[in-house]
Amino acid sequence: MEYLNNKKSIPFEIQAFTSPEVLCDYAREHPIEILLISGKAMNDMVKQLDVGMLIILSEGVHNPGLDHYPSVYKYQSSDGMLREIMSYYGADKTPHSQTQVLKRQTRVIGVYSPIGRTQKTSFALTLGQILAKSQAVLYLNLENFSGFDQLLEQRFEHTLSDLLYFIRQENMNLSYKMASMTESLQNLDFIPPALSPMDIQCTTYEEWTSLLEMIIKETRYEIVILDLGDGVQNLFQILEACDQIYVPIRNDVISAAKITQFEYLLNVWGHTHLMERIRKLKLPFHAASHSGKAYFENLVWSELGDYVREVLRKEDSC
């Protein structure tokens, strides 16, 4: 309960009740959108409550009379339970009214480089985890090949490909569907990246824009980090949607030539003003000493993490 209350991105206020009677007293004065309740606590009074959705918190076996209610398994991680709840809620055919989101204006941060092997993704994940200590941050990987399944040693049930499918179908309750597939690295939320490069390459600028608009208007995220690759259609237009753009660079001759070409095209294609938002960074080399989830979590305390904190400190002092 404490973990969920501290999770900044959850689109609901969470209340806990010590008994069905206390719950019913509360429900007389306050609307309840989702009620998660143990099967043992269910009684006739609770069944008569006017709630948006009632979900049984199951210990594996419950009264057959409750089978018509959706259920989630009690003994699992809080994140897993939250994803299941949001999956039920987002799948509801009825459009749910969006609670007004009170937050600072959402900042979109782009991380992109025309150069390879710059530690771009390691930087983006380090930046995201550090910012997520004090703000609600969502990381989106828009590369052709992210390698997340292999890096995290995990096969994800839902990915960005599924979310893009819902965008194309103009499905209702998109923000809740997104919440049902959101994973976390420490405090940083992320949507598991698309497995196939085609899912990135075939997504139109309008579809990316719809996704960003939904996140900005309907979620509690204060920062969205876009880890951009060259497979994104209308890349420069996507960069236009970014309030700030970090461009990791290298010092060799070929890398410098690629940066020069990138800046030339910004000018030729009418995006010269983006140079004001771009900050080029020469990142310290990060030698991986861990694998799996530990690799991502240890980024924060690496030399790269120290570098990112210094970058943010200097920006705050400006």
From TrEMBL:
Origin: domain of life: Bacteria
Protein name listed in UniProt: CobQ/CobB/MinD/ParA nucleotide binding domain protein
